[in-house]
Specification:
This protein is mainly α and 228 residues long. Among the domains are: 48 residues, no CATH class; 89 residues, no CATH class. Helices cover 64% and strands 4% of the residues. The protein has six helices and two strands; from the N terminus they run H-H-H-H-H-H-E-E. A two-stranded antiparallel ribbon has the order 1-2. Helix 2 packs antiparallel against helix 3, helix 3 runs antiparallel to helix 4 and helix 5 runs antiparallel to helix 6.
């Protein structure tokens, strides 16, 4: 009876972990998005509305539709601010698509490992409870040992969940670093982290300005510039 009561109390809380990704702008409500879509239909040449509509599409996961709206802003916006914003947003989408997929994969791997470790902890607890039940100790002693085993299990649960949250936060932090760099149109490359976790790092490779002054000739044949 004691054992069944303790097992009934077990719960591993994972659903409370915060999501890794969040939109760069405040989310429009679905009602707002519907209104923006209706206005954009009536005023198809209003590029500001089309840009807002693209953000609404992004917030609802309709990436392809958002890209089409951004492309229209670029095509018909010329050198306007909205065209510049659309171009920057489209570049960010292209550069962050791979990183989001990689981070989601890493997060999924972390969660799978957490669930496996939780299962192992639960199995160890179950074996310990069975051993206590079979012992010749008094009922009071058995209850004391079972409570101690339960306390140990809860601490292990907290440690595992905390470790998962810490590593998930690391992934989210890596994404934010990449997003900021991508917004400045810098090149990034995925490299393994110097740790035993699945968290990855991103290496800044600089921008295209680094290669603007390289001569077109082969290195050994390029003419030296004269000193003035």
């Amino acid at each position: 009876m004691i054992r069944s009561h303790i097992i009934a109390c077990l719960s591993f809380v994972v659903a409370g972990v915060l999501p890794l990704t969040a939109p760069a702008l405040a989310l429009d409500s679905q009602k707002d998005c519907d209104a923006i879509r209706a206005m954009a239909t009536k005023r198809p040449n209003d590029l500001e509305l089309r840009y807002r509509l693209a953000e609404c599409y992004l917030n609802t996961g309709k990436v392809d539709a958002a890209k089409r709206e951004l492309a229209l802003c670029i095509k018909y916006g010329g050198k306007s601010p909205v065209a510049a914003r659309a171009g920057k947003r489209l570049t960010e989408l292209r550069e962050t698509r791979g990183i989001d997929a990689d981070i989601e994969k890493s997060r999924s791997e972390l969660l799978s490992r957490l669930e496996a470790e939780k299962k192992q902890a639960s199995q160890r607890f179950d074996l310990e409870i069975k051993a206590i039940e079979k012992s010749t100790a008094s009922e009071a002693e058995k209850e004391r040992r079972m409570k101690a085993a339960f306390t140990k299990l809860k601490k292990e649960e907290e440690r595992l969940t905390g470790d998962y949250q810490r590593r998930a936060d690391q992934l989210a932090s890596q994404r934010q670093v990449f997003i900021k760099s991508a917004g400045a149109h810098e090149k990034m490359r995925l490299v393994p982290a110097l740790s035993n976790t699945r968290v990855r790092n991103y290496e800044n490779l600089g921008d295209e300005s680094d290669i603007q002054d390289i001569p077109e000739e082969a290195p050994m044949k390029a003419d030296q510039k004269r000193l003035r």
